[in-house]
Design brief:
There is one protein chain. This protein has a 4-stranded antiparallel sheet, with helices on one face. It has a single domain, classed as ACT domain (Alpha-Beta Plaits, 2-Layer Sandwich). It contains 3 helices and 4 strands, in the order H-E-H-E-E-H-E. By secondary structure, it is of the alpha+beta class.
């Protein structure tokens, strides 16, 4: 794939994905399960979570080693299709 088709990203690269949803005991696990389907070699320490001020919402940041634009697109599609996930950045 040429530089023009990749855009500004050079693969492979470290790429942070932020996922937001309602705080629950299973939300982080669900996000990690989805990410692992696309990034089976997810590294230790790749996941960070932060509760909102009132504790109603949580943001999960997962830093992956992205291999291609297609991988990122497929991951974003699956994350945004999940009904418990409110936003993906």
């Amino acid at each position: 794939m040429t530089q023009a088709h990749q855009g500004p990203l050079q693969f492979p690269c470290d790429f942070p994905i932020k996922v937001m949803g309602r705080a629950s005991s299973s939300f982080e696990l669900k996000v990690v399960e989805i990410v692992r389907r696309h990034v089976p070699d997810l590294g230790e320490g790749a996941v960070r979570s932060r509760l909102s001020r009132e504790g109603k919402f949580v943001s999960i940041t997962v830093t992956i080693r992205a291999r291609s634009r297609e991988q990122l697109d497929a991951l974003y599609r699956e994350l945004t299709a999940d009904e418990d996930i409110l936003m993906v950045l």
